[in-house]
Automatic annotation (TrEMBL):
Its EC number is 3.6.3.-. GO terms for cellular component: ATP-binding cassette (ABC) transporter complex, substrate-binding subunit-containing. Keywords: ATP-binding, Cell membrane, Hydrolase, Membrane, Nucleotide-binding, Transport. It comes from the Bacteria. PROSITE patterns: ABC_TRANSPORTER_2. SMART domains: AAA (SM00382). Residues 4-241 form the ABC transporter domain. It is an enzyme of class 3 (hydrolase). The keyword Acetylation does not apply. This is Trehalose import ATP-binding protein SugC.
């Protein structure tokens, strides 16, 4: 197990990068705790796999260092870093049996046969392949082969870190849930440092202790699922996390009031007078149908009943405003106003969250 430190880390695939735009991975300075489970979450092309490959040693960074437990491993090859990595598509030895595939990492390190047999049996049970241990991998389906890859990554107990690069892509939906549950159980039992790359917010939020959200080659927030939901530090986090994502509206903010298209929206704190492109963000869960003449004037577009609740889709001067209502709620056809919970409204300047001010004018 290892604490992983990213020290002034950056990477470009160009031989002579000029400006910041030439970098697939912008400068990163982060410390990820020993024994914690992290998910790298973001859209395709945001730098997730690049970062994972640098951590594993498959890619040497253009700049900066990687440290495991404060030891510089930047120049070490993958084998010297003592990590296990599971890739998006299955990597198995077709001519070997399932048992021999799972046992390979242990036998390669000279583990005792009794220990190998015990671990292989335990992992086979975890991935649901006890009944095919004697079969050759060649004839198995793609999802069965990926389960072997997962099992081979998990069979060692002494690794510094377990790295997963979108490992459930070829797994059927029911098995995805089972394997995520097993991975979480494995983490709780052995305390490995785990890093799990995905573009699926459900996978990230259900697997990880902390989610590392990436956008355009940057880490824009590291936090618990609750922190990402309640206090997105960047508008991308608000948009990407949640279904639907956070409502974002251009505004002018004066103290504890936001002015949106001439309508005053109360805020839960004093934000001063932020400059730049100012927006307020509020999640649909904290938007309700207004009674009477108060609130923000909107145009109802449609109502989507998704079983557990209803999504109310509205428009405000070309900007989407979504609200979530309980399943049994009646949504009037002439709905024309919504209100925001002041305590749940975030303020953003040039996409970054503005910290509220205290009564003395000092950032809280």
């Amino acid at each position: 197990m290892a604490k992983i430190t990213l020290d002034n880390l950056a990477h470009s695939y160009l031989p002579n990068p000029g400006g910041e735009d030439d970098y697939a991975l912008k400068e990163l300075n982060h410390v990820w705790g020993d024994g914690e489970a992290y998910a790298l979450l973001g859209a395709s092309g945001c730098g997730k796999s690049t970062l994972l490959n640098i951590i594993s040693g498959l890619l040497h960074p253009s700049r900066g260092r990687i440290l495991f437990n404060d030891q510089d491993v930047t120049g070490q090859v993958t084998a010297e870093r003592n990590i296990a990595q599971v890739f998006q598509f299955p990597v198995v030895y077709d001519t070997m049996s399932v048992r021999d595939n799972l046992a390979f990492p242990l036998r390669n390190r000279g583990a005792k046969p009794a220990y190998v047999a015990e671990r292989v049996q335990a992992i086979a049970k975890m991935i649901g392949m006890e009944d095919v241990l004697g079969r050759k991998a060649r004839g198995l389906t793609a999802d069965a082969k990926q389960k072997i890859s997962l099992g081979r990554g998990m069979v060692r107990e002494d690794v510094n870190a377990l790295l997963f690069d979108e490992p459930l892509t070829v797994i059927d939906p029911h098995m995805k849930w089972e394997l995520r549950t097993q991975l979480k159980a494995l983490h709780h039992e052995f305390g490995h440092t785990m890093i799990y790359v995905t573009h699926d917010q459900t996978e990230a939020l259900t697997f990880a202790d902390k989610v590392v959200v990436m956008h355009d080659g940057r880490v824009v927030q590291v936090g618990t699922p609750e922190e990402l939901f309640e206090r997105p530090e960047h508008t991308f986090v608000g948009y990407f996390i949640g279904s639907p994502g956070m409502n974002l509206l251009d505004a002018r903010v004066e103290g504890a009031t936001a002015i949106v298209g001439g309508t005053e929206i109360p805020l839960g704190a004093d934000y001063g007078r932020p400059e730049g492109r100012v927006q307020i963000g509020v999640r649909p869960e904290f938007v309700t149908m207004a009674e009477g003449a108060g609130g923000l004037a909107v145009r109802l577009k449609r109502v989507e009943d998704v079983g557990r609740h209803k999504i109310i889709r509205c428009d405000f001067e070309g900007q989407a405003v979504n609200a979530i209502a309980p399943e049994g709620a009646e949504v009037p056809a002439d709905l024309s106003r919504v209100v925001f919970d002041p305590a749940a409204v975030n303020v953003y300047s040039d996409d970054w969250r503005v910290a509220p001010l205290s009564r003395k004018g000092v950032a809280a």
